[in-house]
Amino acid sequence: MSSKPILGDSTLQDWVRIGIIYPASGLADFEFYEMAPKNVTVHVTRIPLERSTPKCLGKLADYAEDVAVLLAQAKVNVIAFCCTAGSFIGGPGFDREVIRKIEKSARIPATTTSTAVLSALDRLGARKLVVATPYIDEVNWLEKKFLEANGFSVIKIEGLKLLNSYAIGLVKSERLHELVKRVYTPKADVIFISCGGLRTINIIEEFEEKFRIPIITSNQATMWAALRMAGIKTPIKGFGKLLRQY
User: Fold this and answer.
1) What CATH code is assigned to 117-217?
2) By percentage, how much of the chain surpasses pLDDT 90?
């Protein structure tokens, strides 16, 4: 049974509301509800995505601009565009362009997953990283280019070569573990598990203990950034060093 209190009429208007824009075929948006601390609610709206190709991913920013106004009607405090590839696919600076579109449309502060990951890497003091993804090689190359243009060294990046974005949500933790083992090197400061469609929050603590370095995942970093933007700095246990200490 959840330990979170049932919302009453006298409390709901005072709670912080986090708005999430999330691909329609994704299965991991439940992670935001799991990570939400006391007095924070999560409100998700969806945008079309069937295949994780550069062409399909490149359309998401325009969809986000349209649906941001729906979240604005719920008077959310922050809007997070939760698609990692969808916010780096246009190259360096594309994440900031997505933010600009959302903020212009909704008139609410916004962030993207790629922006959040960059901030999380900076906050952890990481410069060298390895990246595990579900993407095809073309998308991985674009992600590596984006990260390196923002000042980080990508030692290794490897993906599962999944085009079906629904299938990404079905990836089991054992398969992710094998992927992370292949990319891991002691030279890395951080392991980044990329993609908001992957179910990751249940393995972050386990992986940090096993590999002895911080783990950043897309949904974890997005929630961390959105909470900080909303003024919530309460340590949250169970989802890795980032939310626990920063």
Assistant:
1) 3.40.50.1860
2) 92
